[in-house]
Amino acid sequence: MDCPGIMVGPDHERTALVRHALRMFNVGANMTTPLFGVVVRKAYGLGVQAMCGASALVGFFTVAWPTAEFAGMNIEGAVKLGYRKELAAIADPLERRAEFDRRTAQAYESAKAINASVGGGIDDVIDPAETRGWIAESLKRLPPVPERTGKKYPFIDTW
Fold first, then answer.
1. pTM for the structure as a whole
2. Nearest to residue 43, comparing CAs of 106, 134, 117, 127?
3. Distances in Å between the alpha carbon of 137 and those of 46, 100, 134, 142?
4. Is the pLDDT of residue 153 over 70?
5. What is the tens place of the pLDDT at every residue in 66-88?
6. Which residues pair with 36 in a beta bridge?
7. How many Å apart are CA 122 and CA 150, to the nearest integer?
8. Rounded distance between C-alpha atoms, residue 125 and residue 134, angstroms
9. What span, in angstroms and rounded, lies between the C-alpha atoms of 32 and 116?
């Protein structure tokens, strides 16, 4: 996954982007196939949740490469919104820019996969070379597909 989020705002709302993107949540919430997640770069907001099957906890695993970043939205935008009052209170434009840059760097540091993984939501931060092994081993651990039972998630009974 590399998802910079779902864009919002008047221009995007005219194209019904949010409505179309939310279809991914419905699909993810109703999936009956195994889901493995590998975050390689940006994992921002609802966009990455939709790609994870509506939650990072849905998949059999969700791992991240060290290059991954986790944030609620675009980091610069989050700093502008979250610290609007503090930044506006600084009269000197150079000083304001320096404070913005400092807070942005701090937010990027917190968003790094190795730091963001501490709070949960992903199983591990892995070396990219280990990705194939994670998928192959997880495929081996899947329960056998039972005969059609009419159940939405028939494989859960075999655990």
1. 0.74
2. 117
3. 29, 44, 5, 9
4. no
5. 999 988 888 998 899 999 999 99
6. 61
7. 31
8. 11
9. 28
